[in-house]
Design brief:
This protein is mainly β. The chain has one domain. The chain has no helices and 9 strands. The strands form 2 sheets. A 5-stranded antiparallel sheet has the order 1-9-4-3-2, with no helix packed on it. The protein starts with a strand and ends with a strand.
Length: 123
């Protein structure tokens, strides 16, 4: 498994995106050049990470080249006052038709990863 930053999608044309549901743990990006990428959290003990929200129209990133793909994270506004540690991770995909933002939320006891991995799926 080879890990990448999401900007590897710049210049690629997505033909399908699977798993775009609130609460999802895996999102798969199928590209027109035959490559496939997956965004997910490798679950471990004492933590939870899931897709919290999709902002924008997913149709805007299908069938047209990705012009910009970027990720960012912060630790603002936990979903619960009882959360020991949390991370919001945002992934923005931009085409000439529009922008889609995938908003992930992770929480843990502070000793485990709350982030999302992005990697190429080997054929």
């Amino acid at each position: 498994m080879k890990y990448y930053e999401i900007d590897v999608l710049v210049g690629k044309t997505l033909i399908k995106v699977e798993g775009l549901n609130n609460g999802s743990h895996v999102v798969t990006f199928l590209c027109g050049d035959g490559s496939t990428y997956r965004m997910e959290h490798m679950q471990d003990c004492c933590e939870s990470v899931s897709l919290e929200e999709i902002v924008g129209d997913v149709a805007d990133i299908i069938g047209t080249p990705i012009l910009k793909a970027e990720g960012s994270a912060n630790n603002d506004n936990p979903l619960s006052e009882y959360t020991e540690s949390h991370t919001w991770t945002f992934y923005r995909l931009v085409t000439n038709k529009g922008t889609v933002v995938l908003r992930w939320y992770g929480e843990s006891n502070g000793y485990y990863s709350e982030g999302v991995e992005f990697f190429e799926v080997e054929p």
